[in-house]
Amino acid sequence: MDPGAAGTKALVFDVFGTVVDWHGSVAREVRALVKSKGLRVNAVKFAKAWRAGYRPAMDRVLRGEAPFEKIDVIHRAILEDVLTQFKVTTLAEAEKAHLNFVWHRLKPWPDSVRGLKRLKSKFIVATLSNGNTSLLVDMAKHGGLPWDCVFSSDTFRLFKPDPGMYLGAAGMLDLRPEEVMMVAAHKPDLRAAAKCGLKTAFVKRPLEHGRGATLDLASEPEFTVNAGSFLDLADHLGC
Asked: What is the pLDDT of residues 33-48, one digit of tens each?
C-alpha cells in the first residue's frame, strides 16, 4: 500500500464520469432514439449539452437560489431545455421519461467492476454522488456495481462540494475523516474532500467527455494516490 494511504478503511466514489461512462452511454441512447424517430440531431452534442446544465443547477442550490431537488427532477428540467435547443418537438411524454432515466442505465468503464471487487476485498466501498438514491441503485443493478452502501445527495439533502456530504459519509460509517478516501476523476471534488480531512485518490478518465476532449489529467502530489484506473488504484492500495 502507498504509505500515504495507511489507515484507510473506506473508499467513497464519485460516480458520473469516475465509475460510469455518462458521455458514451447517453450519446448511444440519444443516437438510437433519434434514428427511430427520424430526427436530425447530433447525439454527442446533445449529450454534452445535457451534462453542461448539471453543474449550474447544483450551484444554484448551493448558493441558496433554488430548493434542493433530486437529480432526476433536475435532469428532466435540463432535458426540456435541451430538447428546445435542438428543436426536438415530437417526443411523447413516455419517451421523454424513458430518455431521462438514461442516467439510471449508464455503463461502467471497462475496469470499474473488476476494480471495485478487488477494492471491496479490503475496504468498504460506497458511492458519494450527487445522484439520487434510486438512480444509484438502478445503476448498480444495471452495471453490476458491487457497492457496500449508497450515499447520495438525498441521503444528506446536499450536493458536493458541500462539506456535509464528505463529513456525512464518514459519520454514517462511524469513521474519522482521515479513515475515508474520496475517489474521483474530478480534481475540485477531491480538493473539497481533502479540506474536510479525507484522503484522496485521483483516477484518470481521459474519455469522460469523449474522444478529443481536453482534460486536466496531470497527477498531483497533493492527492494521496494518482491512478490510471480502478485496477491501478487497487495495486496502489495493496488489493
From this structure: 989 888 889 999 999 9
